Amino acid sequence: MNLTKERLKSDFKKKLMNLYAESIPDSSKLHQYLALGALVKEYASEKWMDTNIQYNKRHVKQVYYFSMEFLIGRLLGSNLLNLGITSLCKDALKDLGIDLHEIEEVENDAGLGNGGLGRLAACFLDSMASIGIPGHGCGIRYDYGLFEQRIVDGYQVEIPDNWLKNGNVWEVKKEDKAIVVKFGGKVIPTFENNRLSFNYQDYEAVLAIPYDTPIIGYKNNTVNTLRLWSAETIDKDFDLESFSRGDYTKAVEHKYSVQSISQVLYPDDTRVDGKILRLKQQYFFVSAGIQSIIRRYKKGNLPMSRFDEFIAIHINDTHPSIAVAELMRLLLDEEGMSWDEAWKITTNTIAYTNHTIMNEALEKWPIEMFKKLLPRTFMIIEEIDKRFCNEVNEKYNDLQKVHDMAIISNGNIKMAYLAIVGSHSVNGVARLHTEILKNRELSNFYDFYPDKFNNKTNGITHRRWLIKSNPKLSNLITETIGNDWIHNPNKLIDILPYSKNPVFQKKIYDIKQNNKMDFAKHVKDHYGIVIDPNSIFDVQVKRLHAYKRQVLNIFGILDLYYRLKDNPNLEITPRTYFFGAKAAPGYYLAKQTIKLINTVAAKINNDSSINNKIKILFLENYSVSLAEKIIPCADVSEQISTTTKEASGTGNMKFMMNGAITIATLDGANVEMKDAVGNDNIVIFGMEKDEVMSLEKNKTYHSSDYYNSDSRLKRIIDNLVNGSLNVPPSEFADIHKYLIANNDEYFVLKDFDSYVQAQNRIDKLYKDRATWMQMSISNIAHSGIFSSDNTIEQYSKDIWKTKKVDINI
């Protein structure tokens, strides 16, 4: 792109005038952002068009990544970075009296995800585009995100996340590419032309409208596509007859019913109607996505018999696993293929990533609900299940094994099983996670399909999580070892020889301190709380769930607080603890944990007797853009999930890449992080997998034993329910019950002593600045292997069999 500062200034002023008929002095920050975003999208559009043209002309194999979540965050900064025009844009706007940073802050985080699943999908899209893999995303364009979190009197309060209130400057609505998705009705089998066919009747037809967002590769002319689907009615938005009768609600009832499909991420499924809506959502975007892929494929005049040679469909967790049955339906009913031919193409096309061993996340759908909503799809799953069960029985001659492995059993359809049977690859997302899947959770399937299972450890894009989020550190790395690491993140290891260099250590330390001062200002501006940049910034930011053990963290803080109360002269480095997390609206225990964190924060932050040695802050409405601020300034990264429960994690990698020291259990990708940096550069505590599995299997854990034998724990747990936290004794009775009466499912009490010892070690290490900085630099140096570029290279080579494509402009 032949772009100069003068041209950019001229283009920006014209865009502002054309969109809003405003000059710069008369325009708002919002209009400036929207004008700049439209301009940046315009700059990328030629590359976007050329990318699609060249993919189609050259008949390259393309990947379609299906996911319920794409947590892409804000796009202005990353798009400028990937186009290579950040500095140019910053200087041009400065000449016009505009601060680029202020413009970036106007953008809303896209409400398209919740946690690690969506953030991983976003990183994967970025990496595919940046290393030249023809890969696109497919999901839902939610009108509202999960929810916007507010903390009121210490409680989480959910309000709608209206992220589209100012529109979305990055998307292009493509009504001409709409797809019809069908729900309900009945299926009539007919025999004609020596072939059994299936015809729908009395179904509900919903229009899926695609909205395309450019995914810009890093300085390489590649622009892939994130296609998100929005649900609209086909021909009856408004019932005039009902309106004329005065039944105003009924007049728009159908419209709102259809629009609810793409209205909100993860509707509450504790009720039947919420469950049905979730199933509708999943089928809606999968059906629309696969129909769209087939339509585009056929425009290339390639035979459907070779579909799997040119198309890879990857399903991110179980949510899109209905893709197996939907692709079969389209190949059988629309393309007229035989079962065997359709099955071969389907299994060769589809690959599945498992993200959890948690039972609650391995989706199951009640047969009657599924059958009523998706009658033809259910027929196909029944046939898949029947054929698979016959195979299992032939191999083992064991009816119990057949029952255990059946896709349909006990009144439910097991979607993870459907994904495994209907794909050619099943991967876990960390070495430990994959081992557990193969040897325990999915051992029957591993025995049956040993060649399908493989590991692909998660990764993060270093462009957003280092270059964009921490430019001072990024610039120092480039000054020290050159810029090869930007295209090859494994080259970060080249800073390792500088880990003991006092001058380099001082530079890294100063950058961290500067980031901490910036965040302290952010905290003061947004929360009115003064925090000490010289304290240890100890951070746990992730989804709120019992297995992630935010309760263990708060117990560790209370233990330190009580030690300070007992001994005011205790020598510790001051600590500032940060929490950020959303709890699912129906997850009562998680919401009570948020209340506990805020209650403890109120008590400790207002206790002058400890001389501000501890401060706690719960960061409201944790998001990608907030993560970009907190991660670069963290000293300590809390990765303390119960061993065997966290599939991988990606936050752990982001903190590592920014030089934080990880306090961790040997869970998920923490294991591989420890292997990379060595025992001396990470602080490990808690049970290992064999002990956890043994306790679970033999049921020999009794939390009351630890409560009764450890005076520190007894004090902390008693104080939950005796009013000493300045709340009624009943407030945390359910947390107390969960830990003692319900036997502490995730071993908080068991790991408590080990955790406290690990935190004491953190305090001791931090006092030795040279050692701490050496550890910090070692973490940065070894983090390159966790770049999602590496992960995508492995997916491309081992699973998708795709080749890199250079886009020529």
Automatic annotation (TrEMBL):
Gene3D superfamilies: Glycogen Phosphorylase B
Catalyzed reactions per annotation: [(1->4)-alpha-D-glucosyl](n) + phosphate = [(1->4)-alpha-D-glucosyl](n-1) + alpha-D-glucose 1-phosphate
UniProtKB keywords: Carbohydrate metabolism, Glycogen metabolism, Glycosyltransferase, Pyridoxal phosphate, Transferase
A matching Pfam family: Phosphorylase
One GO term of the biological process aspect: glycogen catabolic process
GO molecular function, one term: pyridoxal phosphate binding
Modified residues (N6-(pyridoxal phosphate)lysine): 654
EC assignment: 2.4.1.1
The keyword Secreted is assigned to this record: no
Record carries keyword Transferase: yes
Essential cofactor(s): pyridoxal 5'-phosphate
Gene Ontology cellular component annotations, sorted alphabetically: cytoplasm
Enzyme class: transferase
Function of the molecule: Allosteric enzyme that catalyzes the rate-limiting step in glycogen catabolism, the phosphorolytic cleavage of glycogen to produce glucose-1-phosphate, and plays a central role in maintaining cellular and organismal glucose homeostasis. Phosphorylase is an important allosteric enzyme in carbohydrate metabolism. Enzymes from different sources differ in their regulatory mechanisms and in their natural substrates. However, all known phosphorylases share catalytic and structural properties.
PANTHER family documented for this protein: GLYCOGEN PHOSPHORYLASE (PTHR11468), GLYCOGEN PHOSPHORYLASE, LIVER FORM (PTHR11468:SF3)
Family: Belongs to the glycogen phosphorylase family.
Protein's recorded name: Alpha-1,4 glucan phosphorylase
Organism: Clostridium acidisoli DSM 12555
Lineage: Bacteria, Bacillati, Bacillota, Clostridia, Eubacteriales
